[in-house]
Input
Amino acid sequence: MSIQERFSANLRRVRKSLRMTQTELALMTELHRTQISLLERGKRMPRLDTLVKLVSALGCRSDDLIEGLAWMPDPDAYGRWVVEG
Output
């Protein structure tokens, strides 16, 4: 599973647990519905300002949306994203 797939699964899970549609989330975040769709299908990763909008609109913590994602620093090279579990 890629980091995009993990984030998208987390976003979709939180949104659906609230029985919120993509259109409703789009209106609350002032994003286009297609942007929400791209995020939920793992085609895009959110910028920080988008993440803040999502967290606010969903009434969740950022941890809920990035659950299972971790950054592994490497002192000898560039770090890398990993999907946990």
Notes: The chain is about 55% helix and 10% strand. Residues 3-17 form the longest helix (15 residues).
